[in-house]
Amino acid sequence: xxxxxxxxxxxxxxxxxxxxxxxxxxxxxxxxxxxxxxxxxxxxxxxxxxxxxxxxxxxxxxxxxxxxxxxxxxxxxxxxxxxxxxxxxxxxxxxxxxxxxxxxxxxxxxxxxxxxxxxxxxxxxxxxxxxxxxxxxxxxxxxxxxxxxxxxxxxxxxxxxxxxxxxxxxxxxxxxxxxxxxxxxxxxxxxxxxxxxxxxxxxxxxxxxxxxxxxxxxxxxxxxxxxxxxxxxxxxxxxxxxxxxxxxxxxxxxxxxxxxxxxxxxxxxxxxxxxxxxxxxxxxxxxxxxxxxxxxxxxxxxxxxxxxxxxxxxxxxxxxxxxxxxxxxxxxxxxxxxxxxxxxxxxxxxxxxxxxxxxxxxxxxxxxxxxxxxxxxxxxxxxxxxxxxxxxxxxxxxxxxxxxxxxxxxxxxxxxxxxxxxxxxxxxxxxxxxxxxxxxxxxxxxxxxxxxxxxxxxxxxxxxxxxxxxxxxxxxxxxxxxxxxxxxxxxxxxxxxxxxxxxxxxxx
Length: 508
What we know:
7-stranded mixed β-sheet, globular
């Protein structure tokens, strides 16, 4: 540590698909006094089940890690033990600061299925959020419980193949011996919290992404659990907001024994804490794929279309969230095809593009491909690239309209996070198509910061979002509104409506 900390130190952890990050943060000021990071290996399981492969996979996907993707024959798996080893390495990189921490919290990738035997050891590699081999089981479960509307009413969301309940159904069907050997089922962040404390604890935010937790009752849905053959006793206790999971008992990590351990949460919920979100402050995350979310003080109705996931947040409220599959990666691919750099956009023209290169989640067009319309002799490459940006942002803004509780005042800024938020073309496109100002927070590691705010809130007896606001985590560069380009939005809406038969081509 450099300067003397003003307050007690806390540790925030982000255990993501491909790495674990740890931040040691001054609870009084929000200053990051130490950081560490260690990688994970993502393997590809076979289409019929079996152990994870030894090769590293990309693991890249929805910026929220909650979008589901499109089905394929290859799975995405990781050995949970490597998460624990990576956490230890990340903490060791933090040096003495980690050994002085008074509280710790773990934010983790949502939806993953961790199966443990009676001794607490993994039965098999964990199925990650972007393992979508359970698509057949997902379709069957939707039908068996009355369709999407009934599911949305029961668990707040229409489960996708990303969701834990579909993964468990897949395991029971394709690897019955592994399912029979399973004594405990955990989410990724639960696994690490339990290794720290010896206590089986989760939180309502991460539990709301399983497909077996009821937002109406704030409890597990035992009828769904019986249907998929999972004993409720195999699941962790759901801690109340502000409740500790326990204290550090493990002596394997460079953390002080007896330090408080918060319940932790899912990565999206932790990022919302990291920004100190209040209702009416929407977020657009511009990553490989795109995410829009906002906190809500009232429980949103379940969306029977499945566009909006009715997640709980980590504070007692709600975090309605929608995801698109095509964002920065798709636009970068278009730029490469055109032989342009990503900022080489040009205004003007009437060309329209729907860059659905990987199918699309919002709108629900899983078998779509990219669609280009309106080319003219005088259309330039830069205008085509701008059209790709427009198409990606248009779908995010359409999703935003479904996420927010009510119409937002025109002067409410959009918080832009993720890698795309650093790009001028992305910022300008969001401003032009939304007609709103945008703010790009300076803070980068929002999941780990949110976990640190949760740890600080537990330690200090405060609302963790209020802690993050005191730290000023949402401060950043402000960009004023631009006149809304309604003509471009209308062209995109018309192309999407008219292109339905083409966009649906290639379906099963």
